[in-house]
Amino acid sequence: MLYLIGLGLGDAKDITVKGLEVVKRCNRVYLESYTSVLTVGKEALEEFYGRKLILADREEVEQNADNILKDADLSDVAFLVVGDPFGATTHSDLVLRAAKRGIPYRVIHNASIMNAVGCCGLQLYNFGETVSIVFWTDTWRPESFFDKVKKNRQNGMHTLCLLDIKVKEQSLENLIKGRKIFEPPRFMSVNQAAQQLLEIVQNQRIRGEEPVISEETLCVGLARVGAEDQKIAACTLQQMCTVDLGGPLHSLIITGGSMHPLEIEMLNQFSISEDTSESKSIDGL
User: Binding positions for S-adenosyl-L-methionine (predicted)?
Assistant: First the structure.
């Protein structure tokens, strides 16, 4: 049996009882290490689970999936995913590969940012399509995701923005030369995401378009959701460029414009004043 097990969002203890029972009896246990990360490292997980973990990076999962599936029809293999197993589409591919080989599989779900984002007080029913914001480079500055933000805003829906992480990435030069030299890990902050969004807004104005968001659009920044040091800040997009939420992982919400009174009341708990960083009424934004 192939088991896909969600680890939740915080630390080693967020795994479900059912998931932990499976991990303890599997012959091999893989830890997917590139779509997200926990606030604790591999060693902390191994200590709590009582099992050695095999790190599975992007190359292993997407190009060498046969290694993970090897003998999974004869013994139990676990594939651990931060959040929920289906938070990333690449894991559906692993399931399809297993099915084609006649390997039975089972999914043990857990909390993911897709539902835990409700901690800020915005109602999950009021979210539209989720988008991903990637690190821009000198030659690659995609704006296509902004069409989904526009559609969500026009429908009065909030947009959850998942922010880029770069783990075990190679520079273009090392990739071309086939050198297995990897760049240091990078995790996009809400500040970087806000700055890129503001640049898109400016680009649209230059092209004579009317952006659906502006510097004054209310946004919500979230950091380390599910961890004890979780942080949330509600402020304008302009203010979000300088808000300090600490270490990764960060997510950003662009609100849908009109909000339910309960949403406004909840966000007031996390509102940030531009000058003092003290609480400020959302109505004043």
Answer: 9, 84, 87, 112-113, 163, 225, 250
Could you give the CA distance from residue 17 to residue 198 in angstroms, rounded to a whole number? 44
Q: Which two tokens stand for residue 279?
A: 């609480």
User: Residues near 186 by Cβ (< 8 Å), separated by ≥ 6?
Assistant: 135, 164, 165, 166, 169
- Whether this prediction's pTM lies above 0.70 is answered by yes
Question: What gap in Å lies between CA 37 and CA 249, rounded to an integer?
Answer: 8
Q: Decide: 127 and 157 in contact? Cβ < 8 Å.
A: yes
Per cent of the chain over pLDDT 70 is 90
122-148 pLDDT per residue, tens: 999 999 999 999 999 888 899 999 999
First to last CA, the chain: 53
Residue 81's alpha-carbon distances to 23, 189, 243, 266, in angstroms, are 12, 22, 29, 30
DSSP 275: T
Binding site: residue ranges?
Answer: 9, 84, 87, 112-113, 163, 225, 250
* Backbone torsions φ then ψ of 210, nearest 5 degrees: -105, 105
Count of residues for the chain?
285
- Residue 93 is inside which H or E element, if any? helix 90-100
Residue numbers belonging to the annotated binding site for S-adenosyl-L-methionine: 9, 84, 87, 112-113, 163, 225, 250
Q: What residue has token string 């075990």?
A: 168
